[in-house]
Every structure is written in structure tokens, then in C-alpha cells.
Amino acid sequence: MSESNWLLLDRIGIVCGIIAFLGTAYSAFRWWRHQRRERQLQEPVVVRLVAQANGRRLLELPYRPSRRTVTRAEVLGLLGMIPSRQQRFDWKWLLKPEFMRHIEEIHTGDRDVLEIPLTDEEFRQLDLPESP
């Protein structure tokens, strides 16, 4: 083989090495991003009921679901487990598009707390012990 053929093969080897390095770097970056996203989806989310009328009252639910499991059904199930004076709670905010937008923001990591605003009447639907 002539020297020019060896130089050509050498350059092809260098190009292949660079391509392999870039592919490895890209794969490592994608793996790191995936791992970061998985950790974020495991973070707990606070679900809080907020009544604005007659002073600000908060009720923070003791169960903190992970970001991955926060869905409309999960939140409604959690709210359904709160003792209520009625058979079923009737909260208007849960029917608004804002509710779903807040859940989407939790999934994307833009929000860590799901605050559900309630009127004073809606807050009174809960069968909670009166605080002293």
C-alpha cells in the first residue's frame, strides 16, 4: 500500500474516532438528563386547601404524592378522603381549566405546591375539628 493510502486510512480513523466520541458524549448527556427528570418526578408535592374568606385558612393534606402520580383522578381521590359534612364535596375551582394547568405545571416542575382555593362556604363543607 502506498503512503497516500495509509494517510487516507489514518484520516478515516480519526473521523470515526471523533464521531464515536460525539456519539458517546451525546448518549451520556441524554442519560444524565433522563436521570435528573426521573429524580424530579419522584419529588413529593404538597396539596393544600386555601380558604380566602374570613381570614386565610390553610389545610395541608398529610399525604404528599410524587410529581409522577399527581393527576386529576389522584387529587380528587385525595380530596374525597377528607371528612365532609356532605356526601360529596362540591368545589367550583376543580371544574376550571386552571386546575388542569396547575397539574401540568407540577409535572413540568414549574410548581411544587398544588393550592386549591376555596370559598368560605366550600371550606365549611369539610368536617374538621374546630381549632381553639
Strand and helix layout:
Blueprint: H1 3-42, E1 46-51, E2 57-60, H2 72-80, H3 97-108, E3 113-118, H4 120-124
How would you summarize this macromolecular structure in one to three sentences?
This protein is α+β, with helices and mostly antiparallel strands and 132 residues long. The protein is 50% helix and 12% strand.
Strand order of the largest sheet: 2-1-3
Helix and strand content put the structural class at alpha+beta
Between the first and last Cα atoms, what is the distance in angstroms?
95 Å
Could you tell me the radius of gyration in angstroms? 27 Å
What's the total count of β strands? 3
Shape: rod-shaped
- Residue fraction in strands: 5-15%
The total number of structural domains is 2
Number of helices: 4
Low-confidence stretches: none
Helical amount: 40-55%
Helix and strand run: HEEHHEH
For the biggest sheet, the summary is:
3 strands, mixed
Mean pLDDT: 86
What does this structure look like?
This protein has 4 helices and 3 strands. By secondary structure, it is of the alpha+beta class. It has 2 domains: 42 residues; 81 residues, no CATH class. A 3-stranded mixed sheet has the order 2-1-3. The longest helix is centred in the first third of the chain and has 40 residues. The radius of gyration is 27 Å and the shape is rod-shaped. The chain starts with a helix and ends in an 8-residue tail after the last helix.
